[in-house]
């Protein structure tokens, strides 16, 4: 082994031994080898938000929104990602870590059951990735991972719109468990998993602190994805996805089942893609209140107008009879929402988009009011304009 002159000099005067130097060099080499395929990435997500009209105490309750972001400047979240992806070997291994810092970290609510307080920090994902040589290769995630259902991600830069849909809001967010995925061929893939609970709290349990299930009670999930083959003409590359997640929910202190079906469709118009999503939430065995359900349907359209300019639209409807959002007694929470987003990539590595969103209530006045002492909501409509800027690294 070749040593540098500094190490040889220290060995000559007895400060270090060559044996210890060899061990140190081997340890450093092992660490560097392990880290050589690890990548560091992430993003900084900011926004400027203007809620039209007065009174923002009752804002549309989609995820990662709320009164805290109304009419002002916002740091949404900083994500740091460390990733060592699986290679092509039969017994490949790796890991993935997503750390969140900022207000959205609290909203993600993955805080483990043993922790106290929030502190604007959260683990979004942290799992060991493994492959076993079964068939085409069976891939595993062991730890904390994003839910397997949904058209949209919890990470806004991965979505066509900045604000999240109601469908994404009623879906599970993350799970602590084991997930297996298998690609049958280029057109079909499957996934199945077992988790402690519906989530999102890390290391949550169905038997404690609020659940009354057996210690062996777990949550189960499965999905199938279908991709149109190349010989389908302009439809090639289109995808259809279906999934279900069933288990204990700490939000309701009992069982819930989430069903999802979604599709992204290519069109003969260059740059135009269409999408659709349907989410159905069934809640049963609830404490104190009757069983209920909620469903949300959304249509998406995205058009790449130029190399730098793209426009995105979403129309959705929510009917919540599961008391997920509350709402007027006897009428539930029924809302139409329309979102239009223009994205222009002016700077390198920067996502810049301007968004307008309109939420309209079909179940009485749900929005407005300056405070909870003003006898509840005052409006059936809510409008917001948002400038979202994200730097990706």
List its salient traits:
mainly beta, Porin, 393 residues, 9% helix, 4 helices
User: How many domains is the backbone divided into?
Assistant: 2
Radius of gyration, taken over Cα atoms and rounded to an integer in Å: 24 Å
State the secondary-structure class: mainly beta
Looking at the structure, the CATH topology of the largest domain is Porin
Oligomeric state of shown chains: single chain
CATH level-four homologous superfamily name of the largest domain: monomeric porin ompg
Helix and strand run: HHEEEHEEHEEEEEEEEEEE
CATH architecture of the largest domain: Beta Barrel
How would you describe the shape? Answer: globular
Q: End-to-end distance, in Å?
A: 37 Å
Helix tally equals 4
Whole-number mean pLDDT: 88
Largest pleated sheet: 16 strands, antiparallel, barrel
CATH class of the largest domain: Mainly Beta
Topology:
Blueprint lengths: L4 H8 L5 H18 L3 E13 L20 E13 L8 E9 L1 H6 L12 E12 L5 E9 L19 H5 L3 E10 L4 E8 L23 E9 L11 E11 L4 E13 L5 E12 L8 E13 L4 E12 L12 E12 L5 E12 L19 E12 L1
Antiparallel strand pairs: 1-2, 1-16, 2-3, 3-4, 4-5, 5-6, 6-7, 7-8, 8-9, 9-10, 10-11, 11-12, 12-13, 13-14, 14-15, 15-16
What does this molecule look like?
The protein has 393 residues and is mainly beta. The protein contains four helices and 16 strands. The protein has two domains: 1-36; 43-77 and 152-392, monomeric porin ompg (Porin, Beta Barrel), CATH 2.40.160. The radius of gyration is 24 Å and the shape is globular. The chain has a 16-stranded antiparallel beta barrel with strand order 1-2-3-4-5-6-7-8-9-10-11-12-13-14-15-16. The chain has helices at 5-12, 18-35, 103-108, 166-170; strands at 39-51, 72-84, 93-101, 121-132, 138-146, 174-183, 188-195, 219-227, 239-249, 254-266, 272-283, 292-304, 309-320, 333-344, 350-361, 381-392. The two termini are 37 Å apart. Strand 6 (174-183) and strand 7 (188-195) form a beta hairpin. It is 9% helix and 46% strand.
């Amino acid at each position: 082994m070749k040593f540098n002159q500094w190490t040889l000099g220290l060995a000559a005067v007895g400060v270090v031994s060559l044996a210890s130097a060899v061990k140190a060099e081997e340890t450093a080499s092992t660490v560097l080898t392990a880290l050589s395929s690890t990548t560091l990435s992430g993003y900084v997500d900011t926004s400027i938000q203007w809620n039209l009209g007065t009174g923002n105490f009752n804002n549309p309750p989609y995820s990662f929104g709320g009164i805290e972001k109304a009419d002002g400047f916002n740091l949404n979240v900083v994500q740091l990602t460390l990733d060592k992806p699986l290679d092509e070997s039969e017994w490949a291994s790796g890991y993935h870590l997503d750390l969140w810092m900022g207000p959205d970290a609290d909203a993600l609510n993955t805080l483990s059951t043993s922790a106290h307080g929030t502190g604007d920090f959260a683990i979004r994902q942290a799992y060991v990735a493994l492959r076993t040589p079964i068939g085409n290769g069976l891939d595993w995630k062991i730890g904390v991972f994003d839910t397997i259902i949904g058209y949209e991600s919890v990470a806004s830069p991965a979505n066509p719109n900045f604000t999240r849909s109601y469908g994404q809001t009623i879906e599970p967010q993350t799970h602590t468990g084991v997930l297996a995925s298998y690609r049958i061929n280029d057109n079909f893939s499957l996934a199945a998993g077992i988790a402690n609970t519906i989530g999102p709290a890390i290391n949550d349990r169905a038997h404690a602190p609020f659940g009354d299930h057996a210690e062996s009670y777990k949550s189960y999930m499965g999905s199938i994805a279908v991709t149109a083959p190349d010989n389908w003409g302009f439809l090639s590359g289109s995808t259809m996805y279906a999934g279900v997640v069933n288990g204990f929910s700490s939000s309701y202190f009992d069982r819930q089942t989430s069903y999802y079906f979604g599709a992204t469709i290519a069109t003969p118009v260059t740059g135009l893609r269409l999408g659709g999503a349907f989410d159905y939430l069934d809640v049963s065995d609830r404490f104190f209140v009757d069983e209920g359900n909620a469903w949300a349907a959304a249509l998406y359209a995205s058009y790449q107008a130029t190399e730098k300019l793209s426009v995105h639209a979403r129309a959705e409807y929510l009917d919540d009879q599961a008391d997920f959002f509350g709402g007027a007694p006897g009428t539930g929470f029924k809302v139409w929402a329309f979102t239009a987003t223009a994205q222009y990539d002016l700077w390198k590595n920067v996502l810049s988009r301007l968004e307008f969103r309109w939420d309209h209530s079909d179940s009485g006045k749900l929005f407005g009011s300056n405070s909870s002492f003003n006898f509840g909501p005052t409006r059936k409509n809510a409008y917001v304009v948002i400038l979202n800027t994200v730097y990706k690294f």
